[in-house]
Amino acid sequence: MPKITANKVSFKHPKFAPLTLDFTFKKAFANEQSTELLLFLLNTFLAEKLKSPIKKVSIINSEQLGKTRLNRNAVFDVYCEDASGARFIVEVQVDKQEHFIRRTFYYLCMIISNLAKKGKKYDFNIPKLYSISFLDFDLDFGKNCTEVVQHLSIRNDKHPEVSYDMLQMTFVILPRFNKTESECKTVMDKILFAFKNGHKLKKAPKSFREKELRDIFSIAEISNFTESELYKYEAIMRNEYDQRAILAYAKKEGEVIGETRGLKKGILQTAKNMLAKGFSVADVLKATNLPREQVRALKRA
User: Fold this and answer.
1) What is the pLDDT of residue 114?
2) Apex CA 110: angle with CA 72 and CA 84, to 5°?
3) Are 101 and 139 within 8 A, CB to CB?
4) 108 CB burial (10 A radius; 0-12, 13-18, 19+)
5) Measuring CA to CA, which residue among 17, 53, 171 is closest to residue 108?
6) Are 216 and 37 in contact (CB under 8 A)?
7) 157-161, 185-189, 287-291, range with greatest mean pLDDT
8) How far is the C-alpha of 168 from the C-alpha of 156, rounded, in Å?
9) For the chain, domain boundaries
10) Cα separation of 187 and 218, whole Å?
11) φ and ψ at residue 135, rounded to 5 degrees
């Protein structure tokens, strides 16, 4: 946990870095030299959707470009393909996003568009496409859909037993996983426990005997970081701490102002106060969710 000194934030490191941190996640699963852990992850969470385990994957460019300069780029933590040409997207998302399922579908459609073979004979025989999203927030999948792992696919409404395997979205809702270490019996349970609780532990669980799990904890162990990795990790954590401090300040400021001036006026006044105190436009946007142009106008005023 970070602690405040006179003019900077210093860190008393835990034993392990959070696996939900992009930096740690990519360090463990986006290693082009060794894809064993990525295969371990894919085969565990897609087991019921695959006809047979994936034997080999190749990591490819994780950035999918839009059709024009105005389109958004899609950047994923891991993007890979297997020997059959099937594509796999794996990402971790900590900050809650509205319409996250639609966002995922949009990015998958972007990939599909890039995969379709162009030319006189436009070929729509695109490879299978899978996505796995590890989320540190909950999503509403409907009444009684309370499982930790949710699979979404294309199905026939009148005959739900008929499905089409060209597109498969998997969402792993970490806040729903509440098992203790002793209750983790399956490999999936153990991975989920590592994602949710690994950074709180002082040592890797003895009951987690699988080689891949031991390797994951070894990669996440901060004492094993190189000097450059440690520098990058500390910079990320400082930024995380700054963002939490900004949001806490905005919440406190907004509560005080909002009580007397109304919610919308309170948010605007919070933005003005933050800008006056030297916060950046990006910080204000994150704290208030106001439109960018409105915040820029407030800064110019």
Assistant:
1) 80
2) 140
3) yes
4) buried
5) 171
6) yes
7) 185-189
8) 14
9) 2-224, 229-300
10) 17
11) -110, 135
